[in-house]
Amino acid sequence: MKILIVEDERDLAELLAFNLEKEGYQTLVALDGRTGLERVRTEKPDLIVLDLMLPEVNGIDFCKHLRKQESTAALPVIMVTAKGEEIDKVVGFEVGADDYLVKPFSTRELLLRIKAVLRRTVADDSSGKSILVGPLMVDTVRHRVTVNNEEVVLTSTEFKLLLTLAERLGRMQSREHLLSHVWGYNHTADTRTVDTHITRLRSKLGEAGEMIKTVRGFGYKMEA
User: Within a domain: residue 113?
Assistant: First the structure.
């Protein structure tokens, strides 16, 4: 798997690359946002570790650009930043980041997050089944979603979140359970992550998004 590190602190970028390569990943490094976007176009990475505060093109605009292009709309992104305020996390998720880490972080934590995100990009159901809920169709093998036969491009995290709700149709899912099941970690302070992704998912699904119901004080469920 090829990982692009877009980080303007050269020492940190090289340290991350060194540790990722020890784990068997191929790495690429870009020290500014403009170079990072060019690397995405020419190298086609499997995942991006993206700093928020970058010269040339910042992390927010970088992520927005990826999500607007059909070829990169589902490309996994882990955003890293020295900023840890809640609003920064929300903005990061709103523009389509799959996960978020605040500096300083351990290499082990980053590796765990990378593995969790990459797992979401691999189909985990070989039965060939599709889940139909109203106008929504979720193809579990091809990781493809359609609403009224029109394809909707989702990130790997958005797909896993939708699949979890669709497979448990009519059953309430707590924010804590969704955080653990979809993101692979359990920090109750990060449940806003779930809310932000639900909002983005509803928006992408259009009329089908109305089937995702908020259970006040608890979490979410999908109803046909």
Answer: yes
